[in-house]
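2024-03-11 09:14:02 DEBUG pipeline.ingest accepted 1 chain
2024-03-11 09:14:02 DEBUG pipeline.ingest length=297
2024-03-11 09:14:03 DEBUG pipeline.predict start
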Amino acid sequence: MLSVITATYNRAKLLPNLYKSILKNKKKKSDIEWVIVDDGSMDDTKRLVEKWQEEKKINITYIYQENQGKMQALNHGIPLCQGEYILEVDSDDYLLDDVLEKLDSYKELLQKNKGVYALGFLRKVDNGVSIPFSQSGMVRSMYELYLKDGYQGEIALVFKQSARKKFIHHLEEGEKFITESRMYHEMDKKYQGIVCINEYLVGGIYELDGYTKNIKQMFTKCPKGYYHYFLELLNFPNRKITLGKYWYAIKQYLLFTHLLGISKCECKKGLDRWYDQWLVGFCYHLARKKVKKEYSQ
């Protein structure tokens, strides 16, 4: 069985599209279950889901939490997933029509390889460009894929239940968001990686101004989580990333030391490698001056 899990907040108008796409995929009731974690919605989400539960076309587990953010919602919902495989789908996305057939075609890759924690399919972007992997069937860690290979596409991950349930999104006190990559990199340390498959599994709309428009607000609201993420990235075992990604990580690390008021001494002390410490020390004042100017606007 496949467990589809969705964290949602005030998306009653969008959820029916996802519900219909799940129904299209199931041949019998036990094929798919849907776990919905309502992150404090104030619209008709609860009433809508209760109606679907009454229809009994698929098994739906619904839980409500006071607003704590998407990551905490997933933390609460993942333990409830009963399927052998887990697919996280946002409330504004939908499943393509042949999800179960594609999983049947590739699930042996997960079953036979204990070092693989997920299948990585492509996400179809309705109003943009979907980017294929350089090679279908290759096994790569998420760290290597994005930071060494330079992949820039969006991935629909189908996790082994046994692997996914071992990890949670670690949120810092008082914060509601952190990049999923922080958890993926923890998984990369324990497993070999994911199997990259050049086939579409999930579709959705790319919000052109969503992340970019709110990036400063997100950074200022959740600096501790991002600070630890970039610190962990720079201290990653056997780190091999492109020069561009390395410079980006250094700049972002310095950004969050400024937002948290961390001194140069503390900033350097957290890094394992001497050349990271040297570069951070060299760039510290210049970078903080630039950041201060940008974030005071």
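2024-03-11 09:14:41 DEBUG pipeline.report The longest strand covers residues 193-204.
2024-03-11 09:14:41 DEBUG pipeline.predict end
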